[in-house]
Design goal:
The protein has helices spanning 9-12, 25-36, 119-132; strands at residues 43-45, 55-60, 63-75, 79-85, 92-98, 100-106, 112-118. The protein is α+β, with helices and mostly antiparallel strands and 137 residues long. The mean pLDDT is 95. It has one domain: Alpha-Beta Complex (Peptide Deformylase), CATH 3.90.45.10. Strands 1-2-3-6-7 form a 5-stranded antiparallel β-sheet. Strands 4-5 form a two-stranded antiparallel sheet. It is 22% helix and 36% strand. The protein contains 3 helices and 7 strands; from the N terminus they run H-H-E-E-E-E-E-E-E-H.
């Protein structure tokens, strides 16, 4: 089901809660919604579609990747300034991002994965992690 994008800053500023196996249905809604906005969006946190849960979908090269309860384990020393937009907000804003991040997460089957992401994919993940913390860029 394609969900409406949440723009209410009060809702978006609230911290997300960890996902359980009962929350896996959110993944399909995230996938369908991001695909509906594919021309404007490369990542989406669950709170952007009304769920205060730590689940996201990101475009990783040419495929969508679901990350459940992701945690950054390690960051590169190299930081850069990025200009980012968001479907939930108007305009673009400057923010700092790490060039690469090592992330632990659960896949849709709740199997633990650890992967290092670099460049644009790393940037997208960091943006969505900010959503989990209620941080608005």
């Amino acid at each position: 089901m394609i969900k409406e994008i949440i723009k209410d800053e009060f809702f978006l500023k609230q911290k997300s809660k960890e996902c359980t196996k009962e929350d896996t249905y959110i993944a399909q809604e995230l996938l369908e919604t991001i695909q509906a906005y594919k021309d404007q969006c490369v990542g989406m946190a669950a709170n952007m579609i009304g769920y205060q849960k730590t689940m996201m979908v990101v475009l990783d090269e040419d495929d969508y990747l679901i990350l459940i309860n992701p945690v950054i384990l390690k960051t590169s020393n190299k930081i850069y300034i990025a200009e980012e937009g968001c479907l939930s907000l108007q305009g673009v804003r400057k923010t700092q991002r790490y060039e690469s991040i090592k992330v632990s997460y659960l896949d849709i089957n709740f199997k633990k994965k650890i992967k290092t992401f670099k460049g644009y994919t790393a940037q997208i993940i960091q943006h969505e992690l900010d959503h989990f913390e209620g941080k608005i860029i």
